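ok here's Thiamine-monophosphate kinase:
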Amino acid sequence: MTQRGEFQIIEQFFTHAPFGAWTSQGPGDDCALIDIGGRRIAVTCDMAALGTHFLPDADPEDVGYKALAVNLSDLAAAGAVPRAFFLSIGLPRRDDGWLADFSRGMMALAQSTGCALLGGDTTRTPEVADGRHSPAVISITAMGDLPEGKGLTRAGAKPGDDVWVSGTVGDAYAALRCRQGHWDAMPDALPQLYARMDRPVPRLALGQALLDVATAAADVSDGLLADLGHILDRSGVSAEIDFDLVPRSTALRSMTPLRQREAALSGGDDYELVFTAPAELADRVRAIGVATNTLVTRIGRIEKRTSTALVVRSGEGLLPITAGFDHFAAEEA
Ligand code: ADP
Ligand code: MG
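and the structure:
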């Protein structure tokens, strides 16, 4: 497959010419922006499966929190204010303890962000072998409000814009590698790393504050390079970023340079925002970072589209570009 599998499937089977009274800018962004009678809403939908997106023994309270958080992160990338969500859940069996914890984690975040649960669907997962059912799957559709005519998408980055990223990147991936037993970290760093994996903070205030400033935005779910790559493709531009500027936590910085690179550039699941803004608005971006209590770091520059979409510098040299996460990368079409 010439294109990454997951996106090739969407393009081949789930992209159609617009029809009907409600239209959006088309797939490819974190949210669909839909104009309804003088109002604009942002809608996103994310599915998670235990065993794929969560370790099979993940704490159900964390699962509930994160299932909603990743959707709110898409709303943040659009600059929308969360208003409502719908929950579809498939369960292998009834386990009231698990459900109570799951619900507590999810609803605490829902309440703190004013995003109400307005509907959904509950079903049992299919039986896979002698009475055993496949693991839980959770699909959430979240909706948010946007000012009329506004909303951030992955299209709109212009040559000369700065590339920015919020917070630090790579921690969630480093946490996963540690949990899987492949990497290790100083014992006092582990809780911080695990918290980044289990409790990602959707950058809602930042996204909303960037509405009049950013030219494009995406949340970092697949990996910094992959999600920046989506911005570059949708905007028809190239970029050069400097790995030495990419913000990394103290915990990640205590790991080998190679691991730092793998985690920060290619590891997903951080739910930070990567965005672009005109160079002359850099001070405004910094002020928004202060006002929203969010670290924002300039990591590079957008350039005219060339045959190489993305160049990553480090010191005097260039780093190889590695792909982000793709659910169907290894499968043939
Ligand atoms: P994100 O990582 O922000 O959740 P994805 O990478 O999952 O976004 O999806 C990329 C784009 O493709 C999004 O605009 C999404 O709405 C769209 N998309 C994904 N799956 C489907 C599908 N089955 N049908 C239609 N559109 C889809
Ligand atoms: Mg997204």
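+1. The mean pLDDT is 94.
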